[in-house]
Amino acid sequence: MRSESTIFLMKIMTIFLSISLCTAFVFVIYFQDANKSKDDISMEILQDNSGNMTLSEVKVSDQFVALPGNYSKVGYSPVRLWFKIKLNRYNADEINYLTINNPLFEDVTIYLPTSNDYEIKHFGFAYKSNSDEIGYVYPAFKIPPHFDHNQYIYMTSKSLYGQNFIVQIVNDDLFRKTSMINVLAGGILFGVLAALFFYHLIMGLAIKNKTFIKYCFFVFATLLWNAATTGLLNITGFKYAYWIADYSAGIGILMSLAIAIFMRAIFQTQTRFPKIDFCLKLLIVYFPINLLLFLFVSKELGAFSAGASSVVYVLYFMIMFKGIRYKIIRSPQLITAWLLCIVSIILFYLMVFGLLPQSYIMIYYLFFLSCVSAIAFALSLAEIINDLNEEKQRNQILFENSEIQARQFELAFIRAQMDPHFVHNTLNVIEGVIAENKEKAGSLVNDLSHYLRNIFDYSNSERYISIHEELDAVKFYVRIEQARFPDKIFVNYEIDPGIQLKVPRMVIQPLVENAIKHGIRKRKIAGTVTIRVKELEQGYFIAVEDDGVGIEDADKYKLLEYSPNKGIGLASINARLKAEYGTQLQIVSEKGKGTAVRFDVPIKEQP
Asked: Which residues span the membrane (predicted)?
């Protein structure tokens, strides 16, 4: 049989291989897309160090440098850039669109040559609703009919996220087809994240688990970030799509905060990784401050959060490395989420720093990785629920075992309180009766035997017994008392015929004992005890009544209070009834006329 460590290593290798193959497949498609129009379009780049060059100056400049083809891999540039684009192949008989595969441009101006002059197009989130681009996931422009494809297209751009993009000329059919694919793919991915958010929000509120709420915060921030970086909101016509893109750096800060908070919860860093937890706490304080500065002081401050966000992922790597090494983290779901996160971060920074041209394929792959990572975390949370359920079951078993022991101790305690004088006096009565009536003496011995068996049968710890078993114990006791005090005690049984009721063991017999001992025997003449068991619409009514000496009003309330040397008192029975049914004893008494002790048994509480 394979060891647990070998099985765990095989799981990690399988996950790693699956992610690698998926990424390799995406890269094949990505490079095919990037090179699809490579021969159709050529580009050159110029750095505008002054930032004030005009189109006329740019056109005559000899400082342009050729790019590999139809794509730019320039990361963030502190100076303004100009691009010179030449269409090597163009079909003027079709409707054509110029697309720029980067939805996070801040400020771009494109000069489309016409037969007379240049047609100027502006786009980027700096223009908000005044952008000239068509509603599309990334910037796109319809080529005007009088476009002169023999001249150069000029473009000047600015972006905090790097000026890496792919330029393509697509016809109307391909444009519409690509639009539908983008909407379909984006809608599915957004739907997955939205479903995860609402499901775990409801679940977290239902089970009152903070980790689920923190997960929802993480999913919500991820959803916002992908809405900003994919440009999907542009195609929906959402009014504030450009606003979201404009504040994408702030959304990135919010997402970093959400990741830090969720990491502390899901990995229990406070107990498992205290040093890393301290760093996460500092970041959780830093990010909100940085976000406020970004929103109300300067958007340029958003760049400072990039370094802090990188620290979050470094800490994430350290947690997983230590967790796997020291066998603290053994969940394949968490490891999957971690590896997906590593892949997405590497790809994102490769695009930001200009090592990869930005393409909608890569953007959607990053979105896909976010969704799968969120699903992996969700499966990990499902493990938490399973662990909680298993712990609940274990606790339930422990509770039931302790409850059985408690009942055994309770019955032992009740039985141990039996008055030893009762046995002694009963034996004396039997001794006296033997000489006069051996048959009666034998009957008394039989009653005492059954009575003692009921009292001292410690092996029988059932929580409930039938009302008839309890009344049998009462009858054994009553016959013994009647033998001890001839013609003194009379008992009436008013029991509804065919009644099916279970009651806690020794809950009626002590009431009868109290009625005889403290009610009947204290009066000079004979007395009667009446035991009533009635079935009602809402349950059962049980009462033990006597016509004995009665109780003073001031003493009735003291009977339900615990006090030493009381034996099986009313207080003990009352406490048991409260625990079992939520009801309690009712004592009705009048001095010199008798006492009635009553209680109800609800039907819904029947075992």
From this structure: 12-31, 180-203, 215-235, 247-266, 278-297, 303-321, 333-356, 362-385
